[in-house]
TrEMBL record:
Record-linked InterPro entries: Thioredoxin-like_sf, Thioredoxin_CS, Thioredoxin_domain, Thioredoxin_H-type-like
Domain Thioredoxin: from-to ranges: 16-153
Protein's name in the database: Thioredoxin domain-containing protein
Keywords: Disulfide bond, Electron transport, Redox-active center, Transport
Domain of life: Eukaryota
Top-level taxonomy: Eukaryota, Viridiplantae, Streptophyta, Embryophyta, Tracheophyta
Keyword Disulfide bond: yes
Pfam families, sorted: Thioredoxin (PF00085)
Entries under PROSITE patterns matching the protein: THIOREDOXIN_1, THIOREDOXIN_2
Amino acid sequence: MGANISNGYDFGGSAMNKGLVVPSDGSSANNGRVIVSNGSSSNTGRVISFHSSSKWKIHFEASKLTSNLMVIDFTASWCGPCRYMEPAMNEFAAMYTDVEFIKIDVDELEDVAQEFGVLVLPTFMLIKKGKEVDKLVGANKEGLRKKIEKHRA
């Protein structure tokens, strides 16, 4: 389980230049928010992607009023393990409709990633009532599924 430290690729001050680590263990829109759907026309089974820190903060504050589990996927477009986990996030969103799935690109919302202390990609934060209840670092589909199962009740 080694890790690649991204240091030679420049996105003009992106998170890659801020010391983020992408594990390489071989395991398996501009309005501020984009809903990535699994193809269903209902509101269930979706991953919500935020592109505005202010819209994210409003959403996060509102989520504190519910006891539902929120899974935040901290990701980046250049991150191979993150791309590997994307189908799993969509699958889990379809499977666990009582759980809210959020996708945050660390290059777009660097301040949010810093606020949550994200240093490695992918990082999955499991949140209830605004508090972190669990965390998974790395591309581990089964590990994420187990954590979702554990905390969704």
